[in-house]
Amino acid sequence: MIPVGSLPEVVLTIVLAVAIAPFFGHYLANVYTGRYSRWDAIALPIESRLFWLLGVNPRRPMGWKEYARALILTDAFAILAAFILFQVQAGLPWNALGAPNMSWHLAFHTASSFGTNTDFQHYSPELQVSLFAALFGEGILMFLSPATGICAFIAFARGFSRKDGRLGNYYSDLVRTYTRVLIPVATLGAVVFALLSVPQTFSQSVSTLPLGGGSGVIPLGPVASWNSIEFLGTNGGGYFAANAAHPFQNPSALTNFAAIILMFLIPLASPFAFARIVRRPHEVWPLIGTVLIVFLIGFVMFVTFEGSNPYLPSAVDQSHGYLYGAETRFTISESSLFQFTSVYTNTGSTSMSLGSLTPLAQSTLLFAMFLQSAPGGDGAGFGMLLIYVVLAVFMGGLMVGRSPEYLGKKIGMSQVKWAAAALLSHPFVILVPVALAFWSGLGQTAVGGYSPHGFTVLLYEFTSEAANNGSGMGPINDNTVFFNVAGALVMLIGRYFPMIAMLAIAGSLSQEEIRAPGPGTLKTETLTFTVFLTIFLIILAGLLFLPVLMLGPFSQIVGGL
To answer: pTM here?
Structure first.
């Protein structure tokens, strides 16, 4: 049964996260529209010096192709640098625990993973990554990747409000994301985690004397600051292999609460920032409403499915929930909220063993990654929601015989083609490698033979990578050439093709005049459109992915293993 005693804490956490969202969304809108801020006195001199060092003019606007090129080349350079670093880390400083050089394919997967905001780890962080590589390889990418997603979202938003064909300057957006959003909030978050007893030290280990005799070594490091950008940046890669289930990384209910608030912060604020950027304040309600409806329905289902396992004998005590594979320091409700928020915000951090979840609970997590937008990761998640909106407005306009317009911009074939391509690319990059894995026999080898659960594990692997989520379901032996290379390609395509589509749609819309609403315009700020958009999301994801759910978790329900 569901432990109802802890539900008020869960409700309070969600309510507080939603209450913060409008204020932080207002702040985000001010950052990217150049409005005055008290932070200007500190940020402007730093930004001016950075622009001078980069040799760029922040006031020169870019078209969508130039913006996309700058975004991709910046990320490509950082990913390449990290790829090289991981292969030479053994000979670099700050490697007290003797982490070896990564193989080329593991380095390719790791650099692609952290560079695409996925942070999927095919290795044990404590043993296979030096402190130097963690800070200057993974750490730099953990700031760059969420900044890239936020920049793409901001450029997408400008497409609905501009008519000169320009989307702003990528380098200006990137620097401002660092100086005004990620670094200040991450610094504050690190202080909070340190005050809540999360370790923050450059010592890489501490020696212990176990009660059974002998000696032991406990890995340490700058965990508080790592936690902060891990959750704020919807990164998800843990400093320890156990991630948020490790008592050093998530020692108490307060750190659990702080992590959830940070994961929610930017994704829930994005709709409010968008509404202010396009100067349509009422348009926020269908967007945030759709996100919350999908999230809350999914969470109720998840915590219900984890409240008890009907396949266990009645003699097994489940009065505190189905605790197998769960973090027993927290209640099922608290652990479920963390895990559910982590997957639905595309953070991917784990505090529960996902392979131990009930099949229906696993299905709710897979559905989140099929959608990528309820609320999704920093920036990119809301960008995917806008892609759904473009298609929903087009379909809704055709159904009721009204002009397919959104925010005064006509939705035509060019925008619909890009939006459809972005959505269809998602099942493509998931199902093709899944099919190749089983066709080649490598999938059966990795999961220990074919079974419905094994299929679910493999489906979850590539779904998580394609959605840039980063959570993993075991057991699976995925540190191989096939899974490292295929996974890296899936993450890169799953990240950058939808972003290109967002920028292409924004580029075409930014060349149109803004039309005044007429009697034939489909109204999108209404409750009716909110319900329509919610149903549209659920049905479209179901049509794309229901067959593979039947082969995996649903087959386990009807008697598979």
So the answer is: 0.95
**439 Cβ neighbours under 8 A, 6+ residues apart:** none
Q: Is 431 left (phi over 0), alpha (psi -120 to 50) or beta?
A: alpha
Q: Is 355 exposed, middle or buried (0-12, 13-18, 19+ CB in 10 A)?
A: middle
| Residue 223 DSSP class | H
Q: Structural domain boundaries of the chain? A: 22-277
Q: What backbone torsions phi and psi does residue 236 show, to the nearest 5 degrees?
A: 100, -20
DSSP 8-state code for residue 49? H
Task: Report which of residues 365 and 324 the model is more confident about.
Answer: 365
Residue 510 and residue 163 in contact, taking contact as beta carbons nearer than 8 Å? yes
Query: Mean pLDDT across the chain, nearest whole number?
Result: 91
| 3-class SS of residue 110 | helix
- Check whether 250 has a pLDDT greater than 90: yes
Check whether 560 has a pLDDT greater than 60.
no
pLDDT score recorded for residue 481: 97
As beta bridge partners, residue 410 has 405
Mean pLDDT of 105-122: 96
CB 333 within 8 A of CB 9: yes
The pLDDT > 70 percentage for the chain reads 95
* Long-range CB contacts for residues 178-184, cutoff 8 Å, separation at least 24: 178/143, 178/147, 179/43, 179/46, 179/47, 179/50, 180/31, 180/37, 180/39, 180/43, 181/28, 181/31, 181/147, 181/150, 181/266, 182/143, 182/146, 182/147, 182/229, 182/232, 182/233, 183/143, 184/39
Tell me the three state secondary structure of residue 208.
Answer: strand
CA of 63: how far to CAs of 404, 418, 510, in Å? Answer: 24, 17, 9
Q: Tens digit of pLDDT for each residue in 173-228?
A: 999 999 999 999 999 999 999 999 999 999 888 877 677 767 778 889 999 999 99
Helix/strand/coil for 373: coil
Angstrom distances, CA of residue 54 to CA of 49, 93, 214, 453:
9, 28, 54, 50
Task: Say which residues have a Cβ less than 8 Å from residue 140's Cβ, sequence separation at least 6.
Answer: 78, 82
